[in-house]
Amino acid sequence: MCRLLAVHDSRPFDIGSHVAQLAAIARNSREYQGDGWGCAWLEAGEWRTYRNIRPIWEDDPGRFGRTTLLLVHARSAFRNEGLDVANNMPFIAGPEAFIFNGEMRGVRIQAEGRIGAEKLFHFLRRFDGNHRGEGLRKALGIVKRRSRYIRAMNFVLARRESLYVHACFSEDHEYFTMHKWQAGTRYVICSEPYPGESGWTPLPNQHLEAHTC
């Protein structure tokens, strides 16, 4: 399963330092996280993206500049299928960006997308045109009812003005629990605490959280 990271700060921060942290997490993960990676960041109010089919720890985090909102995703492809850089997250649609970590089986929803995570993204965004979260909660309820089994459904759905963080898993609590670090103007969500750092709080299971950017 994948590893994900979201960072927001009202003051610009260095992108590369956070990419390097997720690279260390991915490289040392008990599951292989080397099926490519990607990141998306806000620049002049618009999403910019970078994707590479190589493992995140083999890339150069120094290639990036600064931003106030960042999403990063290191991929572990389900059953080694769909190994194509076009399948690397974050996925972008209009003002929204999306990263996902989990495994869902027997999902009966109709949505466009090359892989399951992309279909989930488009299904969720279809319900929340008011950008206030009510539609997102409704869509999640439908997805859960229409899925045979959800091993995990962790994601971050980002807009210029907000982040929605969802934590949900049915097994392997240690691996699928996401963590939050918040101090001052900095807000960070990650699959694991940064190596050697304290002050991280685990997110509860079956949790949906909104953060205003």
What topology does this entry show?
Layout: E1 3-14, H1 15-27, E2 37-43, E3 46-52, E4 66-74, E5 91-93, E6 96-107, H2 116-127, H3 134-145, E7 147-158, E8 162-167, H4 173-176, E9 179-183, E10 186-190, E11 201-202, E12 207-212
Antiparallel strand pairs: 1-4, 1-10, 2-3, 2-4, 5-6, 6-7, 7-8, 8-12, 9-10, 9-11
Helix pairs in contact: 2-3
Describe this structure in words.
Strand 2 and strand 3 form a beta hairpin. The strands form two sheets. This protein has a seven-stranded antiparallel sheet with strand order 3-2-4-1-10-9-11, with helices on one face. Helices cover 19% and strands 40% of the residues. The chain has 213 residues and is of the alpha+beta class. The chain has one domain: Aminohydrolase, N-terminal nucleophile (Ntn) domain (Glutamine Phosphoribosylpyrophosphate, subunit 1, domain 1). The protein has four helices and twelve strands; from the N terminus they run βαβββββααββαββββ.
Distance N to C terminus: 28 Å
Low-confidence stretches: none
Question: CATH class, please?
Answer: Alpha Beta
| Total domain units | 1
Examine the coordinates and then state which fold CATH places here, giving the name of the CATH topology. Answer: Glutamine Phosphoribosylpyrophosphate, subunit 1, domain 1
Apparent shape: globular
Mean pLDDT: 93
Rg from C-alpha positions? 16 Å
Give, in order, the helices and strands: EHEEEEEHHEEHEEEE
**Helix share bin:** 10-25%
Biggest beta sheet summary: 7 strands, antiparallel
Strand order of the largest sheet: 3-2-4-1-10-9-11
Number of helices: 4
The proportion of strand residues reads 35-45%
DSSP E strands, number:
12
Specify the CATH architecture: 4-Layer Sandwich
Determine the CATH superfamily.
Aminohydrolase, N-terminal nucleophile (Ntn) domain
Structural class call reads: alpha+beta
